[in-house]
């Protein structure tokens, strides 16, 4: 068995400082780029004078939107079939938008040159509050799009409106709540950047860049720049965290490529932290109105939601084409609900583009937050315990596969078992008793429950694509004559430990040690095509491809083993990691023995080619549906509004766990995200569109002091569709935890009659809520 | 300006601009890319190195300020082919994922253990509180440093017995 805790292969380089991140790439003759950005949220570009910058001795090129327009590259397609300015030509549409690009001999000189570029702007009114984007007199942001007379992007709906509305009309009880899932940013510690190297002689373009989807990038570069795809090589080296923010192509990448083509030398561009926070993909920014209809005794019957989605200045969300709101329509959650309906309206605002980033599983995060907050609002209305109310409504194990009212087929689950385990682990009844005692003394503590169902591992390719590229992923496995193997996969780790877990899968399937398997990823010249790592899809898709390609190798090995044993293949069995004659384990041939024979002069049956290598493409038949039950305990100081997370129990069911150590690490990280989003993180703007979270002094991330010691539990319900029963786990905790923390805080505020307050629940916000005066967390404090 | 900085025991003399940051001196002049850059505002701590044994954020130290001083980077933790206990601890307890914060965390951990050989969880959390990790939720970093403390004590005890 190769599954189980195993130290990570990748650690050896990281603990020695021998990782190779994009900024560590250094090429002979390399130049350095820097981006000039807009100080305005919305302004007409009147003129750009680059002459003083160009006169600096160390400056090699200054590129503007006009330069790019001459090459047909001033605009590029986004992942949502919109267009985005690479460098502004007509207007700037958010603060921090790319305006010019300098290439110089060193990074400091490139920055110096930015100071010398003179841009004349004519400021325009900005649209900052998404709720005013569709006002009749709102300035039109995208006047570059022909015939566009307003800021409307799309209307989309899912579920059965008539049936849902009918249930609401007849319901005993209905509750409604407005809530904002504010704009946040994944803020990986490594910012974005690229090293581009165009070789004029061979015509080959090589780009090092921390991309979660190297193959998609290659194809898009080919489409955008008109370069032949076989002459493009994308290398995604070690990535210092991605979380969804490194899926798309950013203007700086295109500028680095153009810079290399123009100067004939390699060009490195690395953004700084402010650039990262101001211009790369944000997440969330959903204004939601949720409603639940239920019986008096707490049976939830229907749920409906209206969403106003702030997509920023360019619709750059990374999600399957069919679903402009991602998988938000999984919002009926983990409950047995008769009918559900959602409608989502997307609008442009003068903020950075993006929308699906930050470990959200294509907006399952927003969906889970919505339903889990609404269930607590209902519990308050019915005066029921929120855990009891959930238990009453959770799907039962016998209901799987479950067809949800918005069209999903949940694969497997035992939800009540997970919730019971979480309640037992935390000592739920005792905590409620403690809370009652404390309330009697005027002290505030809160207990927050959330239950989530994730939807991860996209495709199937028939239903899911990005810009027409179907979400299926390849794997290629070679077994060398001595039985050592090399696996090549299309997904790309940003810290998830693929080099270890994927080797474990191969080891498990072939009966060889995981240490004998090298995993190659992140280089389009060396790996098969696939859409990459996001939406928790590595294990569900590439992990499945890995198991299947290994089984193909094993099947080929069977034929070779049969020839070695002079037996018929049908007389062999796979036992203890060897092929042996049925009932005679002594005849067993190991993969190493078979591999050597497969490369030897052993006579093989007619038509069998020899060697053991195999390739496959995995097109998932369905998504996988990890789930979990989370309970958070907080203490709240009513004098300061300070919230302290005292305990957090997380029970996760992600199906079969390949490397439990890595799985738990993934969960820990996601739980910290939940604390951060619930209590600290927000990208707010003032009325002119000035970004108020453009550094780590303003955009607060959780440290070791805000995080409790996480308490994890597990149940295992294998996925019936995945070849090894795994479901994926990368984003589960980020999806499930914010609601648990917020529910705990609102529970603590029960004595004040508070039913809802928006994230982040900073001390100032909590204090204002206590005093009956909450504020919009995404706008400047009035 | 001409400066001499001793890095991982080796003196290095270079002509540098006064504005050059220590993090860039280490990375660009000495090719020690284990020290990372992350935020410019001393908040994230991925650039943490030891200056005369004290953890500092090298993005807010000028290279010229290190003139005549000793700097230890992650590349200097391994001695004679033997990993430092904190390096071993991070592997044992899965104290890293993407690896970007790891060098800084290791140097802070080393400095903590030099000062407090047997820290409790609270002391460890406080020691690393000026550094961010976006992957681990800190749990396994705390465990890794505890592991290193215990492993070092075992070594010290067995040496004392001999």
Structure description:
The complex is a heterodimer of chains A (782) and B (162). Chain A is an alpha+beta fold and 782 residues long. Chain A has 3 domains: 20-124 and 186-279, Alpha-Beta Complex (Aldehyde Oxidoreductase, domain 3), CATH 3.90.1170.50; 399-456 and 624-782, Aldehyde oxidase/xanthine dehydrogenase, molybdopterin binding domain (Aldehyde Oxidoreductase, domain 4); 472-618, Aldehyde Oxidoreductase, domain 4, CATH 3.30.365. Helix content of chain A is 27%, strand content 24%. Chain A is built from 18 helices and 34 strands. In chain A, the strands form 10 sheets. A 7-stranded mixed beta sheet of chain A has the order 3-7-1-14-11-12-13, with helices on both faces. Chain A has a 5-stranded mixed beta sheet with strand order 9-18-17-16-10, sandwiched between helices. In chain A, helix 6 links the parallel strand 12 (204-208) and strand 13 (232-235). Chain A is globular, with a radius of gyration of 27 Å. The model of chain A has no long low-confidence stretch (mean pLDDT 97). With 162 residues, chain B is an alpha+beta fold. Chain B folds into 2 domains: 2-76, Beta-grasp domain (Ubiquitin-like (UB roll)), CATH 3.10.20.30; 85-157, [2Fe-2S]-binding domain (DNA polymerase, domain 1), CATH 1.10.150.120. Chain B is 37% helix and 14% strand. Chain B has helices at residues 22-29, 85-92, 102-115, 121-127, 139-161; strands at residues 2-7, 10-15, 48-51, 54-57, 70-72. A 5-stranded mixed beta sheet of chain B has the order 2-1-5-3-4, with helices on one face. In chain B, helix 2 (85-92) packs across helix 5 (139-161). Chain B is globular. Chains A and B meet through helix 1 and helix 16 of A and helix 2, helix 3, helix 4 and helix 5 of B.
Brief digest:
Chain A has 782 residues and is an alpha+beta fold. Helix content of chain A is 27%, strand content 24%.
Keywords:
heterodimer; A: 782 residues; alpha+beta; Aldehyde Oxidoreductase, domain 3; Aldehyde Oxidoreductase, domain 4; seven-stranded mixed sheet; 18 helices; 24% strand; globular; B: 162 residues; Ubiquitin-like (UB roll); DNA polymerase, domain 1; 2 domains; five-stranded mixed sheet; 5 helices
């Amino acid at each position: 068995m190769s599954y189980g805790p195993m130290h990570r292969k990748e650690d050896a380089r990281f603990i020695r400082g021998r990782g190779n991140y994009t900024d560590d790439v250094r090429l002979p003759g390399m130049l350095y780029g820097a981006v000039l950005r807009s100080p305005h949220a919305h302004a007409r570009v009147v003129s750009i004078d680059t002459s003083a910058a160009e006169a600096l001795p160390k400056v090699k090129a200054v590129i503007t939107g006009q330069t790019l327009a001459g090459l047909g590259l001033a605009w590029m397609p986004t992942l949502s079939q919109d267009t985005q300015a690479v460098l502004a030509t007509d207007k700037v549409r958010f603060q921090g938008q790319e305006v010019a690009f300098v290439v110089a001999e060193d990074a400091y000189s490139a920055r110096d040159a930015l100071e010398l570029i003179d841009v004349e702007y004519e400021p325009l009114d900005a649209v900052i509050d998404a709720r005013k984007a569709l006002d009749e007199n709102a300035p039109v942001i995208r006047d570059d799009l022909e015939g566009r007379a307003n800021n409307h992007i799309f209307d989309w709906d899912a579920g059965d409106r008539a049936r849902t509305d009918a249930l609401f009309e007849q319901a005993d009880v209905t509750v409604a709540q407005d809530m904002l899932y504010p704009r946040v940013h994944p803020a990986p510690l490594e910012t974005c950047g690229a090293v581009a190297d165009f070789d004029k002689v061979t015509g080959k373009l090589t780009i090092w860049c921390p991309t979660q989807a190297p193959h998609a990038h290659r194809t898009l570069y080919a489409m955008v720049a008109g370069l032949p795809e076989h002459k493009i090589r994308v290398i995604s080296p070690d990535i210092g965290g991605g979380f969804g923010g490194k899926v798309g192509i950013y203007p700086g990448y295109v500028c680095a490529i153009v810079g290399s083509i123009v100067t004939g030398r390699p060009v490195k561009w690395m953004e700084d932290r402010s650039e990262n926070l101001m211009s790369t993909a944000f997440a969330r920014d959903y204004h939601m109105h949720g409603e639940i209809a239920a019986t008096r005794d707490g049976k939830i019957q229907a749920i409906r939601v209206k969403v106003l989605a702030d997509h920023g200045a360019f619709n750059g969300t990374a999600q399957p084409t069919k679903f402009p709101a991602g998988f938000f329509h999984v919002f009926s959650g983990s409950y047995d609900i008769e009918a559900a309906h959602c409608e989502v309206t997307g609008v442009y605002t003068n903020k950075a583009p993006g929308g699906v980033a930050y470990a959200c599983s294509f907006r399952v995060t927003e969906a889970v937050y919505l339903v889990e907050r609404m269930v607590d609002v209902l519990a308050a209305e019915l005066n029921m315990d929120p855990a009891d109310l959930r238990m009453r409504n959770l799907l039962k194990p016998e209901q799987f596969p479950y067809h949800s009212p918005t069209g999903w087929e949940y694969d497997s689950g035992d939800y009540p078992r997970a919730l019971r385990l979480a309640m037992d682990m935390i000592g739920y009844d005792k905590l409620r008793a403690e809370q009652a005692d404390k309330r009697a003394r005027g002290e505030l503590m809160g207990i927050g429950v959330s239950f989530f169902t994730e939807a991860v591992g996209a495709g199937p390719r028939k239903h899911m694509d990005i810009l027409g590229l179907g979400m299926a992923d390849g794997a290629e496995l070679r077994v060398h004559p001595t039985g050592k193997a090399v696996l090549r996969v299309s997904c790309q780790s940003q810290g998830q430990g693929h080099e270890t877990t994927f080797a474990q899968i191969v080891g498990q399937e072939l009966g060889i040690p995981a240490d004998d398997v090298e995993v190659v990823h992140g280089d389009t010249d060396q790996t098969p095509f696939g859409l990459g790592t996001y939406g928790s899809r590595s294990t569900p898709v590439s992990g499945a491809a890995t198991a299947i390609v290994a089984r193909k190798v094993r099947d080929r090995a069977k034929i070779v083993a049969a020839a070695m044993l002079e037996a018929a293949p049908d007389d062999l069995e796979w036992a203890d990691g060897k092929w042996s004659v049925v009932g005679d384990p002594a005849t067993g041939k190991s993969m190493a023995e078979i591999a050597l024979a497969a490369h030897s002069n052993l006579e093989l049956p007619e038509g069998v080619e020899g060697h053991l290598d195999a390739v496959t493409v995995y097109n998932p038949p369905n998504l996988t549906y990890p789930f979990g039950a989370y309970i958070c305990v907080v203490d709240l100081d009513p004098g300061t509004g300070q919230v302290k997370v005292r305990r957090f129990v997380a029970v996760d069911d992600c199906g079969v766990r390949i490397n439990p150590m890595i799985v738990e690490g993934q969960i820990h990280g996601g739980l910290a995200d939940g604390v951060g989003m619930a209590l600290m993180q927000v990208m707010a703007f003032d009325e002119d569109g000035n970004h108020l979270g453009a550094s780590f002094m303003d955009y607060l991330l959780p440290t070791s002091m805000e995080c409790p010691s996480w308490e994890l539990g597990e149940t295992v319900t294998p996925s019936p569709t995945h070849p090894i029963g795994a479901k994926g786990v990368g984003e589960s905790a980020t999806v499930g935890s914010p609601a648990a923390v917020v529910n705990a805080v609102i529970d603590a505020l029960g004595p004040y009659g508070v039913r809802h307050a928006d994230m982040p629940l900073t001390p100032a916000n909590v204090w204002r809520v206590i005093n009956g005066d909450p504020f919009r967390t995404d706008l400047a404090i009035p | 300006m001409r400066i001499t900085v001793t890095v991982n025991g080796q003196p290095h003399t270079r002509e540098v601009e006064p504005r050059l940051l220590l993090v860039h001196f280490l990375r660009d002049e000495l090719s020690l890319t284990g020290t990372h850059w992350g935020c410019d505002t001393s908040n994230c701590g991925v650039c943490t190195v030891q200056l005369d044994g004290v953890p500092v954020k090298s993005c807010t130290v000028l290279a010229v300020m290190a003139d005549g001083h000793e700097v230890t980077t992650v590349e200097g933790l391994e001695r004679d082919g033997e990993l430092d206990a904190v390096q071993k601890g991070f592997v044992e307890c899965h104290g890293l994922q993407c690896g970007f914060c790891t060098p800084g965390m290791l140097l802070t951990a080393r400095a903590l253990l030099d000062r407090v050989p047997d820290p409790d969880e609270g002391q460890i959390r406080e020691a690393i509180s000026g550094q961010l990790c976006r992957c681990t939720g800190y749990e396994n970093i705390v465990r890794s440093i505890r592991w290193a403390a215990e492993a070092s004590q075992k070594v010290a005890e067995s040496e004392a017995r001999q």
